Amino acid sequence: MIRKIKLQNWKSHSETELEFTKGINVLVGPMGSGKSSVLQAICFALFGSVPEIKRRDVKVTELIRRNGGNQAYIELELSAEDKSFQIQRLINSKGSEGSVRDADGVLLAGTNPTQATAFMKHILKLDEDTFLRTVYAKQNEIDLFLQLNPQERKTRLDELMGVHRFESARKNTVKLANKIDTKKTEKENLAKSFELDKLTETIHEIESEVLALKEEKASISSSLDTAGKAKVNAELQLKELKAKFEAYARLEEKQKFLVAQINELKLKVKGPVKSQIEIKTQLDELQSKLPSLGNYKSDLSRKLEAANNEMVAAEKQASISESKLSDLQIQLEKISVFKIELEQLIQQIGVENPKAETERLDNEIKELDKEIASAESEAKLLKKHLEELKTAEGICPTCTRALELETKERLTKEREANIFDLSNKIGALKNQKTDLELQKRKVSDFVQQSEDLLRDISREAEFLKQKETFERQLKESQSILDKNKTDLASLKSDLEGTETELSSLRKIDTELREQLHVAEVQEKLQQLQEQFSDVQNKLESKPSADILEDSDKNFGEALRAYEELAAKSKSIDFVIEEKQKRLNELTKKQKQAETLLLETASLQKKVELLQQLKNALLVAQEQLRKELITAVNEVMSSLWSKLYPYEKWSSIQLEASESDYTLQLRAAEGDWINVAGFASGGERMLAALVLRLAFAKVLAPEFNILILDEPTHNLDDAAINTLMLALQEHLPEFLEQLFIVTHEEKLAEVGDNIIRIKP
Q1: Last residue of a domain, one of 486, 504, 522
Q2: Would you tell me which of 48, 72, 294, 537 could form a disulfide with 64, CB atoms 3.0–4.6 Å apart?
Q3: What is the extent of the structural domain holding 749?
Q4: Burial class of residue 41 (count of CB atoms within 10 Å of its CB; 0-12, 13-18, 19+)
């Protein structure tokens, strides 16, 4: 049972909270007041959606109330299985949230909306489609079943009862069976194309040929090993001889190189040569003097560079100080001019306190604005009275007394004169206001200019202090420059003398190194002459070239014999490899053909099994349809006898045929008559209501609720009376809770709980 619903910014509802009771709950109100929105909120709370969203007529975010914020909230309380549940749904621009809690506030599902929906489907044992087609009868849809064409009616009811799944499964079974049968035929034809018997015979022939080739290769292998050993021995002998001749060739090249070097060195060594020890001693003494003298020169260079840097820095500082002093002098001269301008400005304005004068002018302008507004308001009122007076016919528009023509003319002239005086007054006041505003602007300009001048003049002391600082810095820089000029002259003189001494010592160093080089050349010449004698002795034992030629010829013969045998062996390997490839291809085809035959047999079994399944599904579909229709008819018969108050129709049934479902009424004579086309509007509506109740009882026995949205739409008074009688006297014994949305005040009389919805 649904107990309460709370809505915030849901469609047309800003803040709505409704409580429901057991029995008949009637939501009554004018068109557009938001009654149906309450039912949509119940549907959304239970299943997280409404039919308009499923049809994509609206987006979820369009359910949020316009100008009501950026989110909507639904809270629904209901009881099921002797337990209480609280469902909460939230919609915002990012999507939606959903949760289900028990009576103690413990979270049972959510906040994922899909989890909350799945939980409620499990608790209610009811899905959204069944709810919308049985429990929730929307406006103009209570007799929807009777409005549909036969094909659509059969489809809708099959889907409602779930038997459409059997039809879909049966069609899919037939499609699958045909697909498998086609595949089986393709595999059969492919297997025949392999010619399995001929393929097996060819495989045996190739296997015999490969065996013969392998035996021939085995007989060649022993001869190939012997030829290989002979080739290796001849190759080793040839390599040893080549190595010896290459060594003698290198000695001959070395001999030529030594002769060239000896001749070259003899040209360099002329006259007597000092010993290397004597020359090195003189070089060591010279090397001991050079570093200290070089260090002294470096020290002088650093001092000279430092003095130069200090002088450059002093010159730069002096330049900066002179530039700053020039700028400060200009600023001080400007301040003198500003003082004169300020005195002239004070004399021009002639006001002792400009700020107080500005405030006084502001107050006078405000008072003038009030007077102008009052005068304009009075003039507007007089103009309105004047217009009314001009159009008045015999009665004064102000006091409602009789109005004579002479009085009307007098009053008209008085009003016109007053309006003229007020216009003159308003013009004078505005002129006065303009004068005051000009005077205020002049005083304000003076205040701004004087503040700017005073701000500039206030910096005079700062500029004087800066001038004193830069004058001191300039004096210091000049003192540093005078001192550095003397130091630089002394350092340059010392550096020149040191460089002259270093140059003389380096010249002596160069001469000694050249003498040392000549001594080293003399020593190297003696070593080369000794090496030349040794090489000549070794070359005297060089062997004859005929020995190398015989060895090379022997290796060539051994190599040719080996390569002939190897080529023949490789040729056999190639033939075996090609035949083996062919054999592998044929064996693969043989296995494919055998596999295809096995698959064909397996596919045939599957086709037979699917045929059996198709027949079983057809039987199960018809049996389920028959059982459901029987159950629905039993419930309808029981309901009809209690809800229909007349004797014209004794019972009701749903007749199922191959192409349609027909709702029929049983006449007093015993004949079954179709509701469509024969029953009155009230009977038709009542029959549709009974059918909907029966399906709800059969398909959703746990959800003992019915919702009717504007059930009296397009019904005459007689049909409405029939419905009211059924609702009030009989329907409550079949249902725990009934919701009716209506704008008919008459229908509200049947309610146990009447809720009035205001727009």
Answers
A1: 504
A2: 72
A3: 2-149+705-756
A4: buried
